[in-house]
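Tip: read the tokens left to right.
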């Protein structure tokens, strides 16, 4: 019989020592052994999170397994710059640096962002050069490149800053030659190398052209090689007469359109055709003096451009002789304009407008 005062046995009075629970990752997977001194890899079961919803830090950057995210849904930093797989982003949505210059797929470049060393395409105005030879073929029309880095210059007048001469060629209108009805005049404006600088086109209606003849009013649009309207010339309808000083011709030059930069005003004189070139403030800058007789016979006709005192010639506008056949059967004229290289581009533009006014006043045939 046992002694009741005896000490109880350890197995009867104390519960067995509790064992620490085994740590298992979500999903019931056994722990992964790793070498001593290294951190254990974070392993998530495919069933632990829904498809495409791995939290930040579940995988290190660049280590996302294939299929973990749908195409186009990779978070920033998932792949290094330049390593985005095809289809990860739609065309045009690649982040900066994802592709090196020149390696963007078609359509990825935003508007105005052309690869280094390339030029944007030249957009020609509809119908402006329809009668020209296509580029690359014999007789193709060369275009003057657009200068850059010219401060305080109205847009489109950068061409004038680097030249001291312009050639104005009026195009022959076949319909006008065959029918005798006056059509809208068109001009090519070139530099001394024969490169196209501007294209000028008259905008007028049939009645005004054929009823008022060379005294008609008009709007002249000046277009550059990129198809942009850089200047507008406006001539109001006025009568003329050497004995009528109240009916003097004028022409306003706007560059860009809507912004006046100067005007040409006819000055009354009993013997000589005279004009005054004004700036945008209506202040006289230069004068133009023509010959007493503007009838040309096998020779050029010069209109001198002088200072306000008429003591120094600084340039000229020349009506060039184009040959007996062309002078007899058409009114398509050629002009040359010379001015100082350092002359203000706005005054150069006004001198170009004066050339058109002289053409209409003295060399445009009056069909009436």
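Filled-in amino acids:
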């Amino acid at each position: 019989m046992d002694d009741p005062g005896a000490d109880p046995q350890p197995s009867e009075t104390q519960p067995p020592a509790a064992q620490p629970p085994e740590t298992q990752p979500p999903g019931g997977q056994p722990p992964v052994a790793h070498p001593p001194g290294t951190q254990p890899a974070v392993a998530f079961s495919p069933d632990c999170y829904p498809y495409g919803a791995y939290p930040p830090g579940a995988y290190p950057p660049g280590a996302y397994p294939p299929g973990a995210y749908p195409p186009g849904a990779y978070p920033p930093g998932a792949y290094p710059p330049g390593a985005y797989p095809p289809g990860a982003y739609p065309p045009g949505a690649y982040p900066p640096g994802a592709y090196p210059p020149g390696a963007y797929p078609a359509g990825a470049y935003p508007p105005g962002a052309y690869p280094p060393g390339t030029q944007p395409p030249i957009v020609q105005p509809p119908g402006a050069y329809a009668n020209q030879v296509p580029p690359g073929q014999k007789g193709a029309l060369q275009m003057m490149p657009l200068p850059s880095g010219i401060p305080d210059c109205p847009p489109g007048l950068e061409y004038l800053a680097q030249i001291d001469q312009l050639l104005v060629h009026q195009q022959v209108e076949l319909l006008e030659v065959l029918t005798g009805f006056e059509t809208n005049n068109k001009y090519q404006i070139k530099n001394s190398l024969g490169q196209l600088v501007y294209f000028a086109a008259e905008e007028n209606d049939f009645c005004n052209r054929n009823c008022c003849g060379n005294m008609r009013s008009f709007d002249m649009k000046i277009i550059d090689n990129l198809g942009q309207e850089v200047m507008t010339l406006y001539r109001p309808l006025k009568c003329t007469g050497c004995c009528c000083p109240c009916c003097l011709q004028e022409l306003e030059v706007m560059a860009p359109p809507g912004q006046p930069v100067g005007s040409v005003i006819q000055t009354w004189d009993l013997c000589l055709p005279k004009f005054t070139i004004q700036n945008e403030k209506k202040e006289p800058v230069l004068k133009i003096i023509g010959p007493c007789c503007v009838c040309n016979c096998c020779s050029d006709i010069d209109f001198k451009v002088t200072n306000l005192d008429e003591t120094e010639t600084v340039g000229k506008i020349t009506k060039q002789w184009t040959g007996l056949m062309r002078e007899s059967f058409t009114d398509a004229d050629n002009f040359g304009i010379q001015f100082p290289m350092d002359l203000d581009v706005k005054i150069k533009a006004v001198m170009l407008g004066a050339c058109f006014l002289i053409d209409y006043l003295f060399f445009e045939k009056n069909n009436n």
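The first strand starts at residue 165 and ends at 170. The two ends are 155 Å apart (CA to CA).
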